[in-house]
C-alpha cells in the first residue's frame, strides 16, 4: 500500500464523515442562531429556551436525511470492502 492510497483513504473517510455530520450540524447551527437572535431582540436570557427547538430540529434533520445517510455509508463501506484486494497489493 502506497502513501498515496493511505492519503486517499483518509480523505475519503473525512469527506464521508463531513457529509454525514452536515445536515445535523447545520440544522443545530441555524436553529441556535435563530433562537439567539430572538433572545437578543426580546431580551429573554433563558439558557434552556434553545434546547427543545434544537432537539426537535436535529431529530427532524435525522428523520429527513437518515435514509440518505444510511445509503451513503453502505455505499462507502461496500466500496471500501471491494477495494481491499487492490489496497493489499
From TrEMBL:
Keywords: Bacterial flagellum, Cell membrane, Cell projection, Cilium, Flagellum, Membrane, Transmembrane, Transmembrane helix. Its main location: membrane. Pfam families: Bac_export_3. Signal peptide: none annotated. This is Flagellar biosynthetic protein FliQ. The keyword Oxidoreductase does not apply. The keyword Membrane applies. It is found in: Cell membrane; Bacterial flagellum basal body. GO terms for cellular component: bacterial-type flagellum basal body; plasma membrane. The gene is fliQ.
